[in-house]
Amino acid sequence: MTNKAYRLTAASGIHKGDRDYQQDQVMVLSHPRAKGCLLAVLADGMGGRSGGRKASDQVMMTARQLFERYDPASDDADAILKQLLNEAHTVIKLIAISAEQEPHSTLVAFLLNPGGDCHWIHAGDSRIYHYQGKQLVKRTLDHSYVQLLVNRGEITPEQAQNHPKSNILVGCLGSENDPPVSLHHIAQMRAGDVLMACSDGVWHYFTEDELGTVLEALAPREASEFLIEKARERARGTGDNLSLVIVKFEPMPS
Fold first, then answer.
1. φ, ψ at 158 (rounded to 5°)
2. pLDDT tens readout for residues 15-71
């Protein structure tokens, strides 16, 4: 077990934006038996009035059940995250058969083990950002049409931000094809690190530098409130559902 020189603070936020319905879902779970172990999960549901909400609800339910049974001492974190993705995907597809809607959902989840190693998974265009102070260390790359264009060098990341087809996904849960499995592993979280997961209703309105500045300066609760408020302002009445979760690894007072 690593001697960690940080304490965790966390907060989540959610807002329906200018939409009639809230289809995003977000939660942060502390492990029932292992101190310092947590799971953060965020899902942006799509598909009709209630279809998207059913899809994102299913992601949360599956995550809760799997994390309840997870043993950080013996279980593989990546395997649990893949199981979450696959099981939620299967159930969402079953909902589609029994209902009129076509439910789909993005998924981002990160699991922190008591030893300080962190594992994440994502499918779709909800994102996870890892900052050290205000410096971006890594973020997920969207499973979207515009990200493919960026990968091919056809457009810049700046052009992708406001591209007219920025909402077209090439991978998510509930679609006909199996969802993409994009995993990432951080061997050891450090004091000064920040993790943020958010839906496109949040990240669409900020540069990576802006996010870094806010996440470094503010506590998770204040940061989540500020980012939602600022995104609402910048959306000018056309905003999507917004959801985010922020976990800060704060230095222990000496």
1. -65, -40
2. 999 999 999 999 999 999 999 999 999 999 998 767 899 999 999 999 999 999 999
